[in-house]
Amino acid sequence: MKAHDGMYIGGAWRPAAGQDVIEVVNPVDEQVIGTVPAGTAEDVDTAVRAARAALADWAATPPAERAARLAALRDVLVARADEIAETVTAELGSPLKFSQAVHAGVPIAVAGSYAELAATYAFEEKTGNSVVHHEPVGVVAAITPWNYPLHQIVAKVAPALAAGCTVVVKPAEDTPLVARLFADAVHEAGIPAGVFNLVTGLGPIAGQALAEHPGVDLVSFTGSTAVGRQIAAIAAGQIKKVALELGGKSANVILPTADLAKAVNVGVANVMSNSGQTCSAWTRMLVHRDRYDEAVELAATAAAKYGDRIGPVVNAKQRARVRGYIEKGVAEGARLVAGGPESPRETGYFVSPTVFADVTEDMTIAQEEIFGPVLSILPYDDEEDALRIANGTVYGLAGAVWAGDEAEAVAFARRMETGQVDINGGRFNPLAPFGGYKQSGVGRELGVHGLAEYLQTKSLQF
């Protein structure tokens, strides 16, 4: 076990204001692998003041120079990719290959994309007799989750820095170690003191203090819809801008003309990825009644292959939450065709890859975000019925459509109330905007739309 001291504030590691620490637990063996300081409101205030002090100079730094610092940061992340992957595997439990490809690889790609955008974005434009300036919004509070711990930091920090903002990050208490690695990478990349600051701590203490701080101009939060509501309410009291990426209950719609085997197998893989701890996971599979039984059989067979291939969920509380949903699914009449609430191992926070059939749209497991390796398969009668079911939750983050004809899939996708839809297994694009409709949040991350979240607009008339 390693005790990590201090907060990264003002370009250096500084002692925390208090003495309390947070234990970081490996979800595979339930052993404590390290500790970090439990930040206080005093730590938050020091970090925000450092960010505020650095803002004017960083905002005035030419975009080309900000781009060069982001490119340097990307290069440091590349050099430390193995260490990043090993750290995420230790604190999140993700299989190492997945950590290498996703938890380390995706943030590197995102950092690189913002290095390019910072150099090419039109921060000034002319319209009629006006010149429009796009300026940094100010000091950003970035409150990030544990499921993709480095990606979610980079997806907020990189566009904020590209825009000319300064940042205070409060990472999730379950996965703070990779955030500390990132702070070291920022330092090595030569990003000026105070532009990036890190405070570890608990959400109700450090996170709330950061959201409430009057020196913060924008709160960017990724996490549950319930906490998102609280942050939005806090921000409303100060008329403070928010960007919220919240929950999801995404539909994977398999139209009758689709390649059923491919659609089902990719759909199951999507749900099991990261042990189901993905807000955009396609946790509702919609299949026409004529092919429903075949789809259920295919899904059950596919899920059985993931028993030894996925890691645990993040902690004991999350394991209990997921098991509770599985038990509720059974109690409400859904049929288990794979997995179940029983733990597949004696040690570790593991949940069996689980598939439910005979799910109706009013069941809890069809409406609420479970955040675990649990798939619900729902039948539909025709395309309009499928659309009604797909749009029939409070969420609208992501989704998928499969059809034999791409145009057919696109036509259906255009009517879905969701922020991102994959067509016939379309690949993840780090330049495409990511964010939700309805209670899945407000604002967008990634690409030029993610950069725009951190800018405000001023017009000069001549």
TrEMBL record:
Write down the InterPro entries for this protein, in alphabetical order: Ald_DH/histidinol_DH (IPR016161), Ald_DH_C (IPR016163), Ald_DH_CS_GLU (IPR029510), Ald_DH_N (IPR016162), Aldehyde_DH_dom (IPR015590)
- Record key words, sorted: Oxidoreductase
Top-level taxon of origin = Bacteria
Q: Which residues form the Aldehyde dehydrogenase domain?
A: 13-459
Task: Show the active-site residues.
Answer: E245
Give one Pfam hit by family name.
Answer: Aldedh
Keyword Oxidoreductase set for record: yes
Q: Give the similarity note.
A: Belongs to the aldehyde dehydrogenase family.
User: What name appears for this protein in its UniProt entry?
Assistant: Aldehyde dehydrogenase family protein
> Origin organism of this chain?
Streptomyces purpurascens
